[in-house]
Amino acid sequence: MTRSCKAFEDLLQQAQRPVLGHLIRLTGSVHAAQDVLQSANVTAMEKQNAFEEGTNFVAWLSQIAINHHRNQTRKLATSSSVMLIDERLHEIIERRHRERMEQHRRENNWQRLNHCLQQLPDHQRELVEHFYLEGKTLNDLAKTTGRKANAIGQALHRARQRLIRCVQQTGDHSKAEVLSDPPISHQTAEIQ
User: Fold this and answer.
1) Residues 109, 110, 115, 119, CA torsion sign
2) Structural domain count, the chain
3) Domain boundary residue, one of 18, 46, 80
4) Looking at the structure, do residues 59 and 107 belong to the same domain, yes or no?
5) Which among 39, 47, 131, 145 would be 20 to 30 A from 161, CA to CA?
């Protein structure tokens, strides 16, 4: 086996998981995706000289796999009058999947943040709720509490830091991004 053939096989092996994942989304079936990937692997081995070194191997193999999927779908459509699902439908399915995942992530973040909000001492939680959820200003809070606006700002800063630590401890560190998004009052309007 030549060195370039071995390198090609290594690239082929490394590309299996990402291409299979794409094919599963495309076909909707693990078994169908594995069949298409196997056919694509055979074609890739036959056409390995057509691959330009230094280009994206996963994209190259994905395109071969997509072409195999299209050919198989066409054959099925003509032989058993199965409806041909076009790329737009696959794009819609993939977009909806991404949207559902993003919505789940946001809901998870909100649950985590609400849990952490309940862990704050009452005075801090009330300040956070008045400032972020009700949209009151520091001056408004200073008037109602009898404290200085700077003191309110510092208390809010400490509450924010506690929330960040709590969110990080209850989930991975990327979940703390909730607190770096626009003010909470804007986010609650989206959720309600």
Assistant:
1) positive
2) 2
3) 80
4) no
5) 145
Q: Is residue 85 part of a domain?
A: no
Number of H helices and E strands in the chain, helices first, is: 8, 0
Give a yes or no: residue 89 inside a domain: no
Q: How far apart are CA 131 and CA 115, in angstroms?
A: 18
Domain span at residue 9? 3-80
Query: pLDDT tens digits for 112-156?
Result: 999 999 999 999 999 999 998 899 999 999 999 999 999 999 999
| C-alpha–C-alpha distance, residues 30 and 122, integer Å | 51
Identify residue 133 by its one-letter amino acid code. L
| Helix residue spans in 85-148 (DSSP H) | 87-119, 122-128, 138-145
Q: What is the pLDDT of residue 7?
A: 87
Q: How far apart are CA 35 and CA 73, in angstroms?
A: 13
The pLDDT assigned to 151 comes to 93
118 in any annotated domain: yes
pTM of the model: 0.41
- One domain for residues 185 and 152: yes
The tens digit of pLDDT for each residue in 151-185 reads: 999 999 999 999 999 988 887 544 344 444 334 33
Rounded distance between C-alpha atoms, residue 166 and residue 115, angstroms: 9
